[in-house]
Amino acid sequence: MEEQLLVSAAEKIPGGGGDGESLVLCEVKKQVCLAGPLIVGYLLQNVVQMISVMFVGHLGELALSSASVATSFAAVTGFSLLFGMACSLDTLCGQAFGAGQHHMVGVYNQRAMVVLGLASVPVAALWTYTGEILLLFGQDPEIAAGAGSYIRWMIPTLFVYGPLQCYVRFLQTQSLVVPVMLSSGVAALSHVLVCWVLVYKLRMGSKGAAVANAVSFLTNLSILALYVRLSPSCRTTWTGFSRQAFHGLLGFLKLAVPSALMVCMEWGSFELLVLLSGLLPNPKLEAAVLSICLNTNAFAFMVPLGLGGAISTRVSNELGAGRPQAARLAARVVMMLALAVGASEGLLMLLVRNVWGYAYSNEQEVAAYIARMMPILAVSILFDGLQGVLSGVVRGCGQQKMGACVNLAAYYLVGIPVALFAAFVCHLGGMGLWFGILCGLVVQMLLLLAISFCATNWEKEAMRAKDRVFTSSLPGDMANVDYSTGQVHPVYLCGRISKIEVLGTGCYSTFTLNKIYRETMENFVRVL
Asked: What residue intervals traverse the membrane (predicted)?
């Protein structure tokens, strides 16, 4: 009976008095308003490191090569890890906000900053030995030494990047995305001046460009922190630092680790393409073409990435509020948007295929190779966009473990083996490598599609979301409820040990958990 009431309540979507078309249009507006500022914000955050590399490029070929290698190494070994772990807040903060447990949004944010800060320590130690690691993998000694020096000066950036991503998710899950865009804009604009001062005026060279990343990210973080502290919009979600942030760290890691694996396996597979291109005949040409394709794909992915952030917010908010039908509608709408965006971007790539290469190189050979790559790149942009928004649906539901398994299978059991076979056995070169990644993207998209629309029981996901928020918001003593047996473990209360029996056994809906909470509180009063 209780579960039927929950499902019945979940069917009531706000604004549900209209027809289906009006609901879809309303959902489209919500997602576009969320995704627009996020897309601009992500683009501006990526521009920061691009500007640093551009400044280094004017210092010489060796400095540029070293900075490029260091940036790729940092992305795979550090930034992808922190970005992925922060993505767990898409689930936790989003569902807590939707459920009305606003204070838990701030607690989750603080907890994430603690965990990401601790995770940054071993990464910083790894970065200290980057030069030696690159030498072990056969990198040119001069480039390895330069990359090692550059990345050591990027270590402060690592400790700023984690909290920055946490604040972005903290605001995003409350649909406060305009401050994210504006702060990223200020940081990107000031970054040009910071780079100029450090690289040329203070004559720090490439080291100055690396330090400039930390300065600009810190500027971004400071603006967001001030907004959260002073804005009335965050009054209920940020109530100051809490000792609760240091509780439940292992529980947070159970969601953060799979979330990080999702991102790391995806980013790593694309970076692996550049390494494999060095083993092909004419490696300079192959590496240059694949780098251009990666940059183009990354630029095109900013739109699906923003849509993915928007849909993770919409799904997590609706599930936390107990509205599974609204969450399912949001997932369907974002697929239509992603399909339209991917098709448009792919068509644009085909239209400019004969001139796009000249934007990166004056070499006719490079431009001609890019033109041949464009059809397969256009298709990969479409599927990459679809998997990007489906990954957002997975994060909104809290199914990161499933997502990590999908990425492992798609890229490392299908994509990379096919890339190796096509490039080195079929002698297709760089086109073969990219074809392998395309196969991985197709498999990833199909598996995520099956999970999101065939295997997901949205009503159960709404119950899980409510239960997750409920158990997290319990006081420390109350958190010892064993929901599989309906028994509260011995707790210490006002100097007395009391074993309290509560409701029976079975699968608990949100109503049952609320009943457990009420009855346990009544028993606490009796003990007193």
From this structure: 39-60, 72-93, 114-137, 143-164, 176-199, 211-228, 249-268, 288-308, 329-352, 372-394, 406-425, 431-458
